[in-house]
């Protein structure tokens, strides 16, 4: 890279840097096969993300991984085909947390992105066996959000204790804990819902991943009573006469 001095323009007595199309088009071309990856919640770390890519994205050439200080990853693929394969094979999760992926654009700014709909693993414990059909599961999931897919054990019905599906839900709203299901006979079932992981959402900041201290409120234990302040006892002083005080005399020795 060769750098040199190029005088800036002066507009209203202020220096203004004017970039030409040829100045940026080459650099933008280097990143047109890049994708943004953002993990909801705590960042798993660069090495963990590197291992995840090596273990799960086996059908592509290993991409270059970059971690930005703002907390997101830039993944630079070796070809457009590789990038599209990863993008359309999603959704992706790491440690049961969704990886939000987006194809990079020159005007990308994470601070301007507002993530409202994110994929979450939803569990349906003790779901009746008659409701395990694809149509029944699709209808139940659609009442929660946008169904993406079910896990392998649910699809093959090798685990019958609960069904588990990845559903895109709006986390700015309260996540439901149960849903009403009506069978063909008109009987209603209150199906309980659970989540592998639920993100914190701050209404004040409109951000995912934290709750402002002002919204949390004081922590109070159940049946906890406010502590009473111990009353201080009054202290009184009484003066008593103990008689005359003796005067000690000291013999001085002249040397």
UniProtKB/TrEMBL annotation:
<feature type="domain" description="DUF4283">
    <location>
        <begin position="28"/>
        <end position="111"/>
    </location>
</feature>
<feature type="region of interest" description="Disordered">
    <location>
        <begin position="216"/>
        <end position="236"/>
    </location>
</feature>
<protein>
    <submittedName>
        <fullName>Uncharacterized protein LOC107791505</fullName>
    </submittedName>
</protein>
<dbReference type="InterPro" id="IPR025558">
    <property type="entry name" value="DUF4283"/>
</dbReference>
<dbReference type="Pfam" id="PF14111">
    <property type="entry name" value="DUF4283"/>
</dbReference>
């Amino acid at each position: 890279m060769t750098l040199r001095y190029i005088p800036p323009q002066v507009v209203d007595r202020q220096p203004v840097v004017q970039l030409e199309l040829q100045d940026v088009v080459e650099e933008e071309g280097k990143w047109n096969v890049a994708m943004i990856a953002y993990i909801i919640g705590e960042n798993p770390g660069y090495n963990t993300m590197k291992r995840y890519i090596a273990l799960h994205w086996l059908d592509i050439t290993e991409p270059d991984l970059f971690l930005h200080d703002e907390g997101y990853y830039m993944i630079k693929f070796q070809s457009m085909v590789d990038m599209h394969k990863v993008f359309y094979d999603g959704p992706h999760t790491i440690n049961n947390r969704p990886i939000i992926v987006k194809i990079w654009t020159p005007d990308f700014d994470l601070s301007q992105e507002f993530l409202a709909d994110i994929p979450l693993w939803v569990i349906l414990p003790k779901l009746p066996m008659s409701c395990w059909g694809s149509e029944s599961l699709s209808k139940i999931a659609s009442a929660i959000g946008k169904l993406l897919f079910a896990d392998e054990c649910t699809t093959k019905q090798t685990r019958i204790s609960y069904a588990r599906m990845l559903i895109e839900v709006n986390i700015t709203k309260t996540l439901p804990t149960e849903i009403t299901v009506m069978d063909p006979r008109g009987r209603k079932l209150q199906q309980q819902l659970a989540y592998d992981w639920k993100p914190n959402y701050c209404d004040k900041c409109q951000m995912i991943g934290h709750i402002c201290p002002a919204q949390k409120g004081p922590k109070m234990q159940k049946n906890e009573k406010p502590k009473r302040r111990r009353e201080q006892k009054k202290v009184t002083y009484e003066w008593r006469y103990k008689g005359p005080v003796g005067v000690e005399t000291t013999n001085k020795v002249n040397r």
